[in-house]
């Protein structure tokens, strides 16, 4: 699923590290949070597989914007955090 700029997305609230060894590129503080897609950066091999020398399918990578005060309860209205997140961690926000 290709996400368009402006799409509201929810970062999956998943914790694969509780199920065994893994390599995760999604920051803990974003899991379960909602943001907005800014742009598609391209499709790249999944680093979560590459870290273990497994076959790595290409996944879309996005810049996603989050409201900083909502994440950390500090900052001013309009402050934002922009993070690169692979599409496998994103789902459409309701």
TrEMBL record:
One Pfam family cited in the UniProt record for this chain: NHase_beta_C
Domain Nitrile hydratase beta subunit: 5-91
InterPro entries: CN_hydtase_beta_dom_C, Elect_transpt_acc-like_dom_sf
Listed name of the protein: Nitrile hydratase subunit beta
Organism: Limobrevibacterium gyesilva
């Amino acid at each position: 699923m290709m996400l368009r700029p402006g799409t509201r997305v929810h970062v999956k609230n998943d914790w694969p590290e509780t199920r065994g060894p893994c390599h995760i590129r999604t920051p803990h503080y974003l899991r379960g949070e909602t943001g907005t897609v800014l742009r598609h950066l391209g499709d790249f091999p999944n680093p979560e597989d590459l870290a273990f020398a497994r076959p790595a399918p290409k996944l879309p990578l996005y810049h996603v914007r989050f409201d900083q005060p909502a994440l950390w309860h500090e900052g001013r209205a309009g402050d934002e955090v922009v993070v690169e997140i692979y599409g496998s961690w994103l789902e459409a926000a309701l």
